[in-house]
Design goal:
globular; binds iron/sulfur cluster; binds uracil
């Protein structure tokens, strides 16, 4: 049987793609693996690579602030990881073969976690997990059901930092996310005043 420890150990030693050659740390994932919500970004940035944790740089702080608006906290309410576990040099997009090499780890994490909701952060994760022709500008905030899992995508927090004009739409997407949580996994908010 698969286990979190087994996946973590394999990732820590992984050299299945070239990103393994330049990483400082594998960024496996963090948060509550027993929570019903999974967030997926594209790949570690500089701070993530140095610290070994996802979304701990400026984009990560912005994401935490955004999610606090709907009372979600990573240590308690969700798990968060990336499509690729090692940093692409100069933060370029992870290439197809790198995603192909790494995606098995995310699939195994997802199989163990069995989330009710998956939230893609940005275009790369949405194209990989929702559909290959996903258009983030047009389709962010829309909901898709795949194998009984409710899936959506938000603009990547780095895009929201760069372009504040996108933030009001993301606020609407967050309100819809809160509604979806209340309908499919209301236990997330039990005991919280919202
Ligand atoms: Fe292995 Fe993924 Fe890192 Fe590539 S990005 S070396 S597949 S853990
Ligand atoms: N951007 C991502 O997509 N993932 C991280 O972990 C950090 C920044």
């Amino acid at each position: 049987m698969d286990s979190w420890e087994a996946i973590r150990a394999e990732c820590a030693a992984c050299q299945k793609c070239v990103l393994g050659e330049t990483r400082h740390n594998v960024v496996f994932g963090t948060g509550n693996p027993r929570a019903p919500i999974l967030f997926v970004g594209e790949g570690p940035g500089e701070q993530e690579d140095l610290q070994g944790e996802p979304f701990v740089g400026p984009a990560g702080r912005f994401l935490d602030d955004m999610l606090s608006l709907i009372h979600l906290e990573r240590s308690r309410d969700f798990y968060i990881t990336n499509i690729v576990k090692c940093r692409p040099p100069r933060n370029r997009d992870p290439l197809g073969p790198e995603q192909d090499a790494c995606i098995g780890y995310l699939r195994r994490q997802t199989a163990l976690m069995r989330p009710r909701i998956i939230v893609c952060l940005g275009r790369i994760a949405a194209m990989r997990l929702i559909k290959p022709d996903f258009r983030i500008t047009r389709e962010h905030g829309q909901w898709f059901t795949k194998s009984g899992v409710e899936m959506t995508a938000l603009y990547h927090p780095s895009a929201l930092l760069r372009d504040p004009a996108k933030r009001p739409e993301t606020f609407e997407d967050l309100v819809a996310l809160r509604e979806k949580i209340l309908s499919v996994c209301p236990q997330v908010y039990e005991g919280q005043k919202i």
